Input
Amino acid sequence: MMGMFSGRDLKSEKYILSLINKIKLKTPIKMKDGNEYILEYSDNIKKLEEFSNNYNLLIEIIKNKDRFILFFKEINSDKMFKWNDIDKAPFSGFDGKTNRNCLGKDLADAGERATIKSIIDYSNDKLILLPSDTNEDFFINNLDLFNIWKNTFVQTPILISELIGGKDKISEYYLEHDADTKNKLNDIIIDITKVANCSKNSWNPADVWLIKKKEYDSIIRDFKNILYNTDNPPGIIDINNLIKNLYDDRLLYPISLKQIGGGKGNIEITNYTYKPISYKFEMVQYPSGFAFNNDTNQFCTKEIGLFIAKNLETDNHMVFQMRAFPHGFKIAQTEITTSGEDCGGRVGKIPTKDIDYILAMYGSSRFKSIKELNNFEWDNETKQYYSDMYFSLTNSNYFSENINYWIELTKIDDNVKEDLSVKIQGLKMSYFLWENKEHISDILTRFLLAGKKINQSSSMFIKIY
Output
């Protein structure tokens, strides 16, 4: 039986962009009836492209109340289709075989390198228009993958030129990034994070630092004068103020690069002035991806599912998930895919250190055995503990499914151990939010701020997305 797209899949930008690119290329799309159709690149599809990373707006244009509307039109025909008429299987991987999650960090790194190249090329009156222009095998060998990223390669340098005052200004700056072996800033940033007592991304998630060439040595010296002043030990506020002053003088731009979906993209100045915010949230959906198949002795999915909370002030939804990223299978990372704010899009991962801190505030903690798989104990006491937790939620109607197969497991095989660790982390998070529902607004606001890297110790940065 084929799996069709559902409302939940609208939260995954990869599906939408892949579908749009197939429509642009006039690739036949398989439908529920088993036939394939070439769809028209209509005004509806252009709206889909424009709002590809905004779940709340997508729901408004593709549904009428609780029902999907006829939205997709066959080319040279009056035949129409709904979102949930489309077969999801061809979009599960970019070539029908490779799942995007399995590409992991390598894909993200290739996208970042190609985006940086696009900025340099743009200053030399070149554009990345073909897969070969990227110099990256991921895109050279996979046209679908390139088409999904192409808009990022085209729009990012345009947005940066707007930011710094024109295309001709790009050549006046060094583009420093992690892969740059001549990057003098890297060692300084490592020492800054020691002062801030946090990870680099928690302090400043910039992927690229634009530094004025003429003032380069002076800027590096300014950082060192604050950072290595033994007479006056540095504070993170002093360093953050230096970055803000250098930005004001157009000498330094810390830029976080994000994949741009449809449209021209956006520029967002973040953390320039720290302003604590507080939202009112209520949970509307807990994840239900806990199903276990007794016949195969495996979980039905590696995903946990989605947590969805309604922002009572904006009427939009904050969506986050916990999942294990294949390139670093140490913890189930928490990622906010939709912020729930008025113009909220993808936020990003919440640093684990922040998750631990927020949970500890309410007397809870993460399940950490995923880091110690060889010491994983699934004894009767542990089973009973998580069984009680699970059924507290199912009996309260917080889970739509009552699936207890995995609770009944008597032996944890190695092929199940990692998945079970992730599932338990999702279960513990669900139970934590349910148990502290009277504090849900404070907890989710803290999650959101942590995901956006907004706190008093964080530096200002510019997000391009």
Remarks:
- The CA atoms of residues 362 and 436 lie 8 Å apart.
- The first strand starts at residue 29 and ends at 30.
- The chain has three domains: 7-90, 105-265, 281-451.
